[in-house]
Structures are given as structure tokens and as C-alpha cells.
Amino acid sequence: MTISGVALLALCTLVGTLLGDFLGIALDVQANVGGVGLAMLLLVTARVYLHRAGRLSDGVKLGVGFWAALYIPIVVAMAATQNVVAAVEGGPMVLVAGTLTVLLNFVVFGVISRSGPRQETMDEIEARELAARTAGIPKL
Fold it and tell me: Residue 53: inside a domain, yes or no?
């Protein structure tokens, strides 16, 4: 049911927030560092895992889809509560943490995108369909 998807999101948000807090402590910045981003990565990973295991029900899809539609307002609301001044006063660690987070996202999304079967791009589909339509037309 839909509540399962919401529960999955809540669990990922809780774990991501805790990891962000621990990362902030480890970097000596009095702020949550990347907790929302980590939560979304966990959610994507959990969804892919459930899909591959054949356990992604329609309810989970609905719950995750519902919150995916609200993702940007949630991020804006959570970012508004961050202690930005304390993070900026952290000095170069802010840049290091931000850079490492971006690089980690590139790596994780690269691995995820390459782990599944190759999908045909829209350009390839359109070219194939155009070739099929024009195959029967005599050339002048």
C-alpha cells in the first residue's frame, strides 16, 4: 500500500539526516552536511534494489512518487533550517565537503545508470521509426 512508500521515504530521510549530522560532526561544522541528498540517494538505491528483487509493489511506487513530486519544496524547507552562518565560518571544510558530495553523487549515479540494461534513447527511437515509415516510400 501507499503507506509503505511513505515509510520507505521516512526511513531514508531519518538515516540520511543522521548521516548528514555525523558528517557535519566529523568535518567540525555545526550543521547537517548533505543529509537530504544522502536521503534521496538512499531512496533511489532502495527503490532500485526493491525493483530488482521483484518486491516493488504499486503502493510503494505510489508513495515514493507522491513524495518525489514534493521533493523541491521539502528541500527548500529543510535548507531554510540549516545554520548557514556556522557552515560558512567552517572555512575551507565547507568547500571540501561540498566538492566531495558532488563527486560522490557523480560516482553513485554513474554506477546506478550503468548497472541496468541499456535503454534506447529518444533519438534512436525516432530514427528507427522514421526509417520504418520511409522504408516503403519510393525515392524520386
Answer: yes
